[in-house]
Amino acid sequence: MSIFKYSIPLLLSLGLQNTSFAEKEINYSVLNCHDGDTCQLKSPDNLKLKIRLIGIDAPEVANRKNKNSQPMGEESKIFINQLIKGKTVTLKNYATDPFGRALAEIYFSKENVNIKMVESGMAEVYHGKMVKEFDVSPYLTAEKTAKDKKIGIWSLKNYQSPKEFRSTKK
Fold first, then answer.
1. How many C-beta atoms surround the C-beta of residue 48 within 10 A?
2. What is the band of 65 on the pLDDT scale with cuts at 50, 70, 90?
3. Which value, to the nearest 10 degrees, does the dihedral of the CA atoms of residues 105, 111, 115, 116 take?
4. Any idea which residues carry the catalytic annotation?
């Protein structure tokens, strides 16, 4: 039996097909955010779903791979959990990453949480390959504002991007 027989209907039931955000709003409960750019949600069917916030890269937190958190890693994790943990959110899905996580924008009370993370200095704009349909311009504007205000990660004297931090841990 093929895995695809179940994965497509499952994604459709979760509302993760590429439909317009306005066309179909499905509410999800936020169980926990593991760091500033990865959260676990629960669907209306009680299925657990791992979301990677598209367009952003947050400082790394200590885990099996990283013995220590990157500066501002724990603060970023706390910030996003205070913002949405235990709350009901909606998603705009774009794709699935190589780890099987949905790449999505998370909305709480119609506010884009991904952009909120960047404009608060708790994440930077992702510097890897972007999904074609994804508009990064509001993220770049939010990052410039945070840099100008020198808040969050931009207040650090020797800031190292999460991408650079990960490369030193290989």
1. 9
2. low
3. -130
4. 52, 60, 101
